[in-house]
Amino acid sequence: MSDAAVHRLPAQRYRVSLRWVTILLALALLATCQPPVSPMAEIQATGILRVATVNSATTYYLGPAGPTGFEYDLAQAFADQLGVELDMQVVDTRAALTRAVRQGNSHFSVGLTATAALRRDYRLTPGYLDLQPTVVYQADDPTPDDLASLDGKLTVARDDAVTNWLRQAHPTLNFRVDESANAEELLARVAEGDIRATVADARLVQLNQRYYPRLRTAFTLPVTASRTWVFPAREHDALYNRAIAFLAGMRGDAAMTILRDRHFGHAKRLGFVGGQTFARIAEERLDRWRPAFETAAEENGLDWRLLAAVGYQESHWDPEAVSPTGVRGLMMLTEQTAEELGVADRTDPAQSIEGGARYIRDLRERLADGIEEPDRTWTALAAYNLGLGHVLDARELLRQRDRDPDSWINLRDALPWLTQKRYHSQTRYGYARGHEAVTYVGNVRAYYDILLWMTGSPDTEKPESLQREPETSDTAAERALDMNVPAL
């Protein structure tokens, strides 16, 4: 083979390789000329909706049955409508919420307040939950009459709607913005006396007053604020338009009313005095009966804290309690119910707790299959208080009026009807004090929420101000629902 032949073969291979490189470059160039995949197309392809949120009593937290929270349930309903799975991504701060959207880690963020700054940089949905910014102080301090009396004493979380209004409406007011804290942390610090006052939404205050009974509300600020979903500022509109349509449909829908009631309907139930009493009695008595509650709950598929909440509502955990009608024991079983359950001694705490647990389980199992949780539990508790027959009567009254009897919010409306002759005359079991059953369930829900928080359930994060050694002084009870009281 000549030298020319030797060098010609590599040249031919080079020309062939160059042709393929040219083709591949052209294909790559064509690919980059295509518009990027839209969020809606990505969601449909992957089957996953990514939503960013923060841990909060009003947004998202892990409860005994798994993820819950108003914002979580609302986002889950939207994911269900889209027919995809919800991936809830929890971040630490408000800035991280917007960053998750801006960087494309989440399709949108929830739990933010609509502001001019957000509207400038992102696309927002119309508001779906109106807020009431309220000034909050501690019971030991004088009640502030106005903002002027809080000059230099007010600390707020980073919320542009509130901070911008304060700066514009009260330009001379001296207040501090804590960039690293959220509203719940500041409420805890007010309760602990670390700061004098803060501003938080009225619903959040009501929820936290159960844990911090010394929190007080002074007045509401005239600030227009509402929750919004935050989307990136891009040209793709399909997902954004679906979200707007979904929220518009939810705003006046019964589903939104049920959702608000589920998360906020019992927030006002206890108030300060009831919360303090609960804390004091929990410190004195709960550790004594907790093992019995845990054992009975495990055997009957219940959360022991729910069972303990019922026991507190019934007797304040007093095994010697007796009602005027002869109902007695820690779980206040009637003689007939105790006999049916095989409880030989109603005043024996272990027997009473075990009998009460079996009775709640039995009531839950006897309810109609269509009643879902948590409505199933609330309905069973109403039957525990009022009797299953009366609850069935109320459900029948709802059916006659074309209202869903499986919804607790509807049943809560119907139970008081049983006191009215025009209604109870139409029922099988007649008159009943339905108002008491409604109050009963509301109280149990409130006590249950407090016990979840007090016993270190993973559903809430404890502020650093509460992470200290247990108190042994006489002031422990006064500190109300401090996580570290010795009994807990």
From TrEMBL:
Catalytic activity: Exolytic cleavage of the (1->4)-beta-glycosidic linkage between N-acetylmuramic acid (MurNAc) and N-acetylglucosamine (GlcNAc) residues in peptidoglycan, from either the reducing or the non-reducing ends of the peptidoglycan chains, with concomitant formation of a 1,6-anhydrobond in the MurNAc residue
LT domain: region residues: 268-488
Keyword line: Cell outer membrane, Cell wall biogenesis/degradation, Lyase, Membrane, Signal
Topology relative to the membrane: Peripheral membrane protein
Signal peptide: none
InterPro entries on file: Lysozyme-like_dom_sf (IPR023346), MltF (IPR023703), Solute-binding_3/MltF_N (IPR001638), Transglyc_AS (IPR000189), Transglycosylase_SLT_dom_1 (IPR008258)
PROSITE patterns assigned: TRANSGLYCOSYLASE (PS00922)
Matches recorded under Pfam families: SBP_bac_3, SLT
Cell location: Cell outer membrane
Alphabetized GO MF terms: lyase activity
EC number(s) per entry: 4.2.2.n1
Disordered: annotated segments: 459-488
Compositional bias annotation for Basic and acidic residues: 459-481
Active site, UniProt feature: E314
The keyword Transferase is annotated on this UniProt entry: no
Domain Solute-binding protein family 3/N-terminal: 53-267
Function text: Murein-degrading enzyme that degrades murein glycan strands and insoluble, high-molecular weight murein sacculi, with the concomitant formation of a 1,6-anhydromuramoyl product. Lytic transglycosylases (LTs) play an integral role in the metabolism of the peptidoglycan (PG) sacculus. Their lytic action creates space within the PG sacculus to allow for its expansion as well as for the insertion of various structures such as secretion systems and flagella.
Family designation: Belongs to the bacterial solute-binding protein 3 family. In the C-terminal section; belongs to the transglycosylase Slt family.
Domain commentary: The N-terminal domain does not have lytic activity and probably modulates enzymatic activity. The C-terminal domain is the catalytic active domain.
Protein name: Membrane-bound lytic murein transglycosylase F
Protein species of origin: Spectribacter hydrogenoxidans
Lineage: Bacteria, Pseudomonadati, Pseudomonadota, Gammaproteobacteria, Salinisphaerales
